Amino acid sequence: MEHSSFEEVAKKSAEDRNKEVIRIERESVIPILKPKLFMTLANLIKHSSDRAEFLKLCKRIEYTIRAWYLLQFEDMMQLYSLFDPVSGAQKLEQQGLTSHEIDVLEQNFLRYLFEVMKKSNFKIATDDEINVALSGQYLLNLPITVNESKLDNKLLKKYFEAHPFNDLPDFHDKYVIFRRGIGIDRTTDYFIMEKVDMLIARFWSYLLKKLRLDKLISKRPKRHGKKLDPKKDDDIKSEDCQDDVYERIRLENMPLSSGTLLSKTLIQEPTFDRIIVVYRRASSYSKQERGIFVKHFRNIPMADMEIVLPEKKNPGLTPMDWVKFLGTAIVGLVAVLSSLQAATTDLRVIGAILSTIGGYCVKTYFTFQQNLAAYQNMITQSMYDKQLDSGKGTLLHLCDDVIQQEVKEVMIAFFILMEQGKAARQELDQGCEELIREEFNETCNFDVDDAVHKLEKLGIVTRDPIGRYQCVGLKRANEIIGVTTEELVIKAKQGNITTP
After folding, report:
1. Model confidence pLDDT, tens digit, residues 353-411
2. Is the dihedral of CA 194, 200, 206, 209 positive or negative?
3. What is the model's pLDDT at position 234?
4. 283: which DSSP letter?
5. Which stretches of the chain drop beneath a pLDDT of 50?
6. Is 311 in contact with 146 (CB distance < 8 Å)?
7. Chain centre distance of CA 285
8. How confident is the model at residue 137, as a pLDDT?
9. Three-state SS at 73
10. CA 184 – CA 276 distance, rounded (Å)
């Protein structure tokens, strides 16, 4: 059954309590540290001589793959030096390039960047995925929007016209959000103000529903992605697909009472393990912007992913806050007019009504101020804690990440072929995923096609007429790859150290 890589699913637990989960297509990234992978695989080999040959092969394959990408990475870094928001403008001016030549160079840089992102198993977040991610609230309770007038809409639009992608988000001409990896974030607190606000929101939601005004007011701006239908538990079990399921625990779905109102509450939200945002600021009449921003974040809760958006507008009162204000004012006005029309007007009653209205308005205002302070704190945290790097630092990290992923893919596939002998593509794919699950307790949608392609390029795997793969012996594999430059350098250094 076809489905989006993200789906929001409603399930029933044994206690007949509604659960909210997100089903996410399993990713291809291998979440295992390279040294741990090498040593674990080597220890699974019986003979010590074969273990030594295997570890030698691991190093030689890593050095070879690094050499494959060296020129591509150098070209990308050289191009980015011209579009670095900090110093790129000065370098462009020194080059004396025409506007057309600069346009060509920036498109070349984007092509390199998108290739590296793909090799590093980053995916462009689609409208459907963003809608599901933002369909709830976590720690951020204010509507955050992007000031699109401050963003350039030509750079990325031109790139995507030349390199079409499926399911691009509505804002793809202004900025792109890459995401990779899923985790879980948990927070335990009293959330007293949030709970009180939730009770009030539920009352107003009920009132709006009765008045049939609920469709006119929305907490979050709607996007144009297709709607995802909730799935029942039976539907989930019946689908045979490689998906991981992550539960959301939100205040909105909790039964609130006097007991839970004053007690600590655990909330939980799936996170994007890594997010990279790419954009350019809009040019002004006096200055043409050429800088390209590349910002790298980690562990961003899905429901709060607005904190990574570029050029955010200052948040204001939510539509629900305005409804509360107007509703309270109308109710208070009716109560005051009723008291004035009564035969005996009690000023104390009118004073109590006005005090209640004023107190509620003050409460709403301070709730907004509290949410605003929390928002500003989250933005600060995202800059100092959750933002890993930006610009050149992010690109260097991506280059190394590509090499790590490529090497791990190759060595896992080679190890399976070495242990099992001949294997068809599907058998090899299953064997690699089972190895990762059984030996490392991790799940991965192994990219067997990419791994086999690199093994064939290295010349250490062959394919028979019926499509089965077979690897050469360990010693022969090391002979085929040969001594690498890095090994010669290491030997030279050791020689210098030992020579008197």
Report:
1. 666 666 666 666 676 666 667 666 766 665 667 888 899 999 999 999 999 999 999 99
2. negative
3. 45
4. P
5. 1-3, 10-17, 218-241, 497-500
6. yes
7. 35
8. 80
9. helix
10. 18
Rounded distance between C-alpha atoms, residue 60 and residue 38, angstroms: 13
Neighbouring residues of 197: CB distance < 8 A, sequence distance ≥ 6: 141, 367
Task: From 102, 112, 225, select the one nearest 163 (Cα to Cα).
Answer: 112
Tell me the pLDDT tens digit for each residue of 280-324.
999 988 889 999 999 999 999 998 888 889 998 876 655 555 565
Distance CA 246, CA 182 (A): 9
Classify residue 174 as exposed, middle or buried by CB count within 10 Å of its CB (0-12, 13-18, 19+): buried
Which residues pair with residue 7 across a beta bridge? Answer: 23
3-state secondary structure of 165: coil
pTM of the model: 0.80
Token representation of residue 143: 């509507």
How confident is the model at residue 232, as a pLDDT?
40
**Mean pLDDT, rounded, of the chain:** 82
Separation between Cα atoms, residue 109 and residue 77, nearest integer Å = 8
* CA–CA distances in Å: residue 331 to residues 315, 324, 378: 27, 10, 36
Is residue 410 within 8 A of residue 61, CB to CB? The reply is yes
Q: CA 383, CA 381: separation in Å to the nearest integer?
A: 5
Of residues 247, 230, 178, 224, the one with CA closest to residue 21: 247
How far is Cα 193 from Cα 398, in angstroms, rounded to an integer?
Answer: 41
Pairing state between β 243-248 and 18-25:
antiparallel
Whole-angstrom Cα Rg for the chain: 29
Rounded-to-10 torsion of CA 33, 35, 41, 42: 180
* Nearest CA among 488, 500, 390, 409 for reference residue 455: 409
Task: Kindly report the number of other CB atoms within 10 A of residue 138's CB atom.
Answer: 21
List the strands of the sheet with 243-248, edge to edge. Answer: 6-12, 18-25, 243-248
